[in-house]
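Workshop exercise sheet. Pairs work together: one partner reads the sequence aloud, the other fills in the structure field after running the prediction. Swap roles for the next sheet.
Pair: D.N. / O.F.
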Amino acid sequence: MTAQVFEQSIQIQANATIVERCITDLTFMHRWLNPALRCEPVGDWNTDIGGESRFIIQIPLLRPTLKSVVVEREPGVVVWGFEGFFHGRDRWECRPNTEGTLLVNCFEFEIPNPLVRFGFNQFAASWTRADMQAQLQRLKQVAESIKHP
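Structure field:
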């Protein structure tokens, strides 16, 4: 089984502190996260290493859930590790530049169940890539609407 990697980036006209806040603050996250996806903290919300949450896909009756834990954290970088119907990592990195911040999102995952993997590759892979780009666009709008501190 080979890991799949989807990487996308977007230039945001906001400083890296604001962009990072959009990724780590649950209130801001819910403004850009796909509406079909809900993030719930396990205990108190935190994005330090070991911080746990659940991402629930809002599909009636099924509600598939991914358990996530922050596995890497440093200024400008948050990496969530996922377990559930697939395993992987979702890395968010803020790279300051003269235009503001380049936000890079790298989603690396494996789907252990061959039937689920086949279904994902046939029906959901292109949707997932498009959804990642749409989320980046929404995150950009949120970040650029926040007044600099």
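Discussion prompt: The longest strand covers residues 87-97. What would you look at next?
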